[in-house]
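Batch job 17 of 40 flagged for manual review because the log was empty.
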Amino acid sequence: MGLSAWAYGMTAAALALFGLGLSVWGLVGDRSRGRRRCPRCWYDMSGTLLGMPSATVLRCPECGTDSPLQDLTVRTRRRWRWVRVGILLMVMAGVLSRAGDVQQYGPAALAPNLAVIGALPFMSRADNAVFRELDARVEQGRMWHWQRRLLAGRLRWMLLHSPDSWSRREAAKSIWRLGDDGEPAAMTLWQAVTTDGNLGVVGMTLVSLESVRKPAGLRAQLARCIRTDGRPGMRRAAIEVLTMCRAGAAQEAPAILAALHDPFADVRRSAILACEAIPCPPELVVPSLLELLSHDDDPTVRTQCMATLAILAAGQPGVAKALKAALKDPDPQIRSSAARSLSAIGDSVPDLEAILRALLTDNDITVRATAQEGLKRIGADAHP
């Protein structure tokens, strides 16, 4: 808490205590304690009553009001004016205690939760402070559970129907910070990814989708998108979201294996990465990766194939042979990646030291540096 916030808090506490004391004094500070008093000016009539014990009507020496004996009151005097002043001071203390938030988030810091939630669909870029105030309330736990559910529903509606791209992006960001991990949130986020044309909104939605639980229905939609969607960007996004499910997406592994043969290199590369996270059958994934390593025309795909094979299939037959063949590729990037992958699976390559030492004379500095790193890793002399 900053110094200004601390000062605001202490001043508000002092003002609230003073207002509370003033209100209590106005309510019970002037009790009769058995005295009979004038009903108009509250003058103590005890002395007058003692001087005229047989009188039935007494005149108040203070205000001159004639009052029958039975009208003399023993009630506590209420000073309602001071009670109202005390209440006003306590309200002012409450406002002052939020002065720091008002400086940071604007007047929205004084609005109740329901008012802020209800006004969300009407927000624009100029109301960025409102979203920041809302996120602060969520992080600080200043919302009831039913208010959080109401907020989650409103944010999902905004993400799909708001005409303003900035509002949709902020809605996706707030869903992520809210931690709404139910099935409606996941399905809404993926629907926004597939239908929204703004890259900023799609990117933020993918970030939010990473933090929510992926139900079986969403995983099935992702697998269908990988197989049938005509947009390469959507197929790649579906693979990346499915990769977040890890072991939970084992049933969708056939869709990942099919994506290894996608006509677009970015999709194939994402599918190769997904094979590391999703448990795919080795007897199916290893031959596909070896085929890509041998025949794919994109060097980044082949590089990723070698890195994945070193992780998943170090002891599989044919992997070391394919990596040794890649050492003769004319592309230095491929040769360097092959050397790195062979170093990673060193235990299953008996002649690894001789292979790496031969690469120390390669005409590319990157390949030579990779060979030296590999020799150091296996504890051999890195000099030619």
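Reviewer: the log was empty due to a logging misconfiguration, but the result itself is present. The two ends are 61 Å apart (CA to CA). Unflagging and moving on to job 18.
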